[in-house]
Design goal:
Layout: H1 2-7, E1 11-15, E2 21-24, H2 26-36, E3 62-66, E4 75-84, E5 87-94, H3 96-117, E6 122-126, E7 132-135, H4 137-143, H5 147-151, H6 156-165, H7 175-191, E8 194-199, E9 205-212, E10 218-224, H8 226-247, E11 252-256, E12 262-265, H9 267-273, H10 286-296, H11 302-311, E13 319-324, E14 330-337, E15 343-349, H12 354-372
Antiparallel strand pairs: 1-2, 1-5, 3-4, 4-5, 6-7, 6-10, 8-9, 9-10, 11-12, 11-15, 13-14, 14-15
Length: about 375
């Protein structure tokens, strides 16, 4: 038993009711020698007590620190005491690794907290029992829910009910369907498949994302995308306006990207070539378009030049050429470079020359006069 206690890597000692150390193992004696900066062989009884706290309670541990000395850094121990008659049996287990891990965790949480505090996205993390475990100031700003309410750690459904009262959540006509939808929200977030855009009665638009976390926790992210949605709608309105303007032109036009893909056309183009580009599935390339044009025109060498011009990356200048339709009409083909490497290809029927028109009229009159004679 003595050999076992001497070899134990933990500090073990006995104290009497006056607090004096009456027995100690080798680990305790070595630690006393380090703390008092004396040789273990020169120590005499009574041995100094390393720990001042003498609370005797075998069911709980006390964490205590031995101060730093010239030869050793501060050391932490988890101390346990058990009553044995008029004395106490004590154990001190090294806790340096535990204290270091707890300090690192505390610093990490503080770093996360500071980071979350500056995030413009509202964050709400609910633990496995669906109680709010963590939130950031942005959540208070976005949801108009008081910090006192959030600090009370409400449940997920209580939190959603509060959002409903604050009109920060889309609300169906009846409450029962709303509760069912919120239950589906929780299930989807727990499985990692919840992402939805909430259009609120206040005019704001929120992007809400649910993500599962370890141990059954769920995190919800609330992002205000009102400005983005407004900008998107503005761009869409401008695109629709531009398309409406292009559709009023009599010239049939098609615009191709630098990669040779059609990105715009107008009604005159569809009518001229007998297509419906607006409802065509897939991408229309310059090769597809030239194949269409060649099928409706007389053989012409310009189509290869048009294809090379659309995909060229060097300096380009506007040019035009005439092609004849199989119906006999003549088209003026205009090829113009646009910004960003895009290319406009325009088609317009050329009118008959005025001299040809007058000659036709003269011939008509002559035939009429001859018939009268």
């Amino acid at each position: 038993m003595r050999e076992t206690l001497e070899a134990a890597p933990v500090l073990i000692w006995r104290q009497n009711d006056e607090g004096a150390v009456v027995w100690a193992n080798g680990a305790y004696l070595d630690r006393v020698a380090d703390q008092k900066d004396i040789d273990a062989d020169d120590m005499t009884w009574p041995i100094p007590a390393l720990f001042s706290d003498r609370t005797v309670d075998g069911t709980a541990s006390r964490r205590q620190m031995l101060p730093k000395t010239s030869g050793t850094p501060p050391r932490w121990y988890d101390c346990h005491s058990y009553p044995t008659g008029t004395e106490s049996l004590n154990f001190a287990l090294p806790a340096d690794a535990t204290v270091k891990a707890e300090t690192a965790l505390r610093e990490f949480i503080q770093t996360l907290t500071k980071t979350f505090a500056h995030l413009p996205i509202g964050l709400a993390i609910f633990d496995s029992s669906r109680q709010l475990a963590l939130f950031n100031p942005a959540l208070v700003d976005l949801t108009s829910v008081g910090a006192d309410f959030l600090s009370a750690r409400p449940t997920l459904f209580t939190f959603l009910d509060c959002l409903r009262e604050a009109r920060v959540i889309p609300e169906p006509k009846d409450y029962r369907s709303w509760r069912a939808k919120m239950a589906e929200l929780e299930k989807a977030a727990a499985s990692g498949h919840y992402e939805e855009t909430w259009t609120l009665p206040t005019g704001h638009t929120y992007k809400v994302t649910g993500r599962p976390h370890p141990d059954g926790a769920v995190a919800f992210l609330f992002e205000d995308i009102s400005a983005e949605i407004s900008l998107t709608r503005h761009f869409r309105s401008e695109i629709e306006l531009g398309q409406a303007v292009v559709n009023t032109l009599s010239e049939a036009i098609a615009v191709f990207s630098p990669a040779g893909e059609m990105i715009m056309s107008n009604h005159a183009y569809d009518q001229l070539w007998g297509v419906e580009t607006g409802v065509t599935l897939g991408t229309i390339t310059i090769t597809d378009s030239i194949r269409l044009w060649q099928g409706a025109t007389e053989p012409s060498p310009i189509w290869g030049d048009v294809r090379d011009f659309v995909t060229a990356i060097d300096e380009r200048a506007e040019w035009d050429a005439e092609v004849s339709l199989t119906t006999g009409d003549v088209l003026l083909c205009r090829i113009a470079p646009l910004t960003g490497g895009a290319t406009l290809v325009g088609f317009e029927k050329t009118p008959l020359p005025a001299t040809i028109g007058r000659a036709a009229q003269t011939v008509g009159h002559s035939k009429t006069e001859h018939a009268s004679a």
